[in-house]
Amino acid sequence: MDEVRLKCDVLVIGSGAAGCRAAIEASEHSADVILTAKGVFGKSGTTNLACVVYDAALGHSDPNDSPQIHFEDSVVYSRFLANQELVRIFTWGAPKTVYDLERYGLPWYKTEDGRFYQLNSPGLRYNRGVHYNESTGKKVQTALVRELRRPSRRNVRIVEDLFIYRLLMRDGRVNGAVGFDLQQDRFFVIQAGSTILATGGMGMAYSVTDMEAGACGDGLYLAYEAGADLMDMEMHQFFPTAFVYPESLRGVIVTSSQLWKMGMKLYNDRGERFMARHFPDECEDVPRDILSRRIFMEVAEGRGSPHGGVWADTTDIPAFDDFKKDRPRTYVWKEKFGVKTDRFEVAPTYHYTLGGIRIDAGARTKVPGLFAAGEVTGGIHGANRLAGNALPECMVFGEIAGNNATAECRTELPPDEQQVAMAKSKVLELVSGGEAGEIPYASIFKRTRRLLYDKAGIIRTGESLKEAAREIEEIKGLLPRLRSGAGLSGKFAMARALETEMIVRLGELVINSSLMRTESRGAHFRTDFPETSPAWLKNIVVHWTGEEARYTTTPVELKYLKPGEALRDVKSANLSV
Hints:
Layout: E1 2-13, H1 17-28, E2 33-36, E3 54-55, H2 67-77, H3 84-104, E4 129-130, H4 136-148, E5 156-159, E6 162-170, E7 173-181, E8 186-197, H5 218-226, E9 230-231, E10 236-243, E11 265-267, H6 274-278, H7 288-300, E12 310-313, H8 320-325, H9 328-332, E13 343-353, E14 356-358, E15 370-372, E16 377-378, H10 390-407, H11 417-428, E17 439-440, H12 441-455, H13 462-476, E18 482-483, H14 490-516, E19 538-544, E20 549-555
Helix pairs in contact: 1-4, 1-10, 2-3, 3-10, 12-13, 12-14, 13-14
């Protein structure tokens, strides 16, 4: 394969909201920037899939809202596991990002008098979510892409269809990366003064997910391999309502957060409104982690719908036909698949990676020269994320990462040629030679995804996690025989083979961290430890020593808010399963 050599001040890996905002900020400071996209720039990635709300305490719908209340809501619903310093930076910084995006060209929905029209979601004390119907994520991505393509951003070079799979190090510092072109037979070796990881989550590690196909935890794996800390790897959020039938729609989410108050209800196959049995006042209008578990339990206990979900019923929503017109992606075009949107089957789907790379307030990892922003990071959402907090988090910490990566870049360190050679050989070894004993990636990829969903998913037990640990160890033993196999074109098959190793290695961290946390908290629920324990008000941190994964715990610093101190009037804040 041919080779392309590039050099820049700041390398941004990932082109969603966090990556684009980081590149814009570095550009503002006159840095030479390379922004890499794993697919087509502006089209690939998960930002485009984000649906409705974008939380920012502007106070336009209710003047009682404030960044402090947004902070309290976020910390309480993180089950106090979030890094409060990061949450404070995020919630105080979110309002500015709304105006940034408007300046980039995003036409937010507004009232007739020019104020932002803000929506509510479970867990918010006040209407806080600015939006552009169900296309908020797509509009955010479009606005950022437009800004980066302005003539004044000529110092940002965009490289599409580039799969970065190895970070380069020199003198203990990240100084670039190696990747290969998914369209042409060539490697890229990029020398960088600073590197920002903004690659999103690891949804494709689970067999049912609403994430796009490239979300395999690339950035988490790159950071872990380079020596950065990962944290809260047991925490993964499932969206409670996704289509389960027909199979072609399985995992595609149904935007439901605003509909519970409007009259949408959930029923099991016996016709019982089961959430009213558990929470008579709130019914379905509870946090995502609780609703996901309750749906999963209904199915597990034999009261599910024919295809393994529960029934969502919209017949009591006033003027639902008019509402559907504002949600065509969720409802109207689904009817073309034969779905009757007055009553349809839903079940939880993997939605968001809560844990991730451990960063400080400046978006720095523990490895010099390496920064991170967006869903690839951990600490901001703790054990549960509020609807609408993901996109503004990307914008706030993308800006911070871009600023600090520029200020702290060192461009004088050339690539270590031995590391480059090893990175190249890693890819070339994956090419199938037809030898006996080779294992095509597809079988391991599918097996790992099913394992994580079934045994380390919404509901966990000590026994299921031990079984998962034994199986993931067995799968790891197969990795030396892993090959790209046939099926996809050669370059995409090689990428998927590398991604397979990533989800296996990361899956092991998920399983072991879940075994280690002997309590239930937020998205992590164990039937053998169903209660939340004050003794576990701490984060699990995992570090690669070069030979093994080392797991430690660190107490959560209750710097600004302690349990019981939040001035809340939301009853569901104290709900448990």
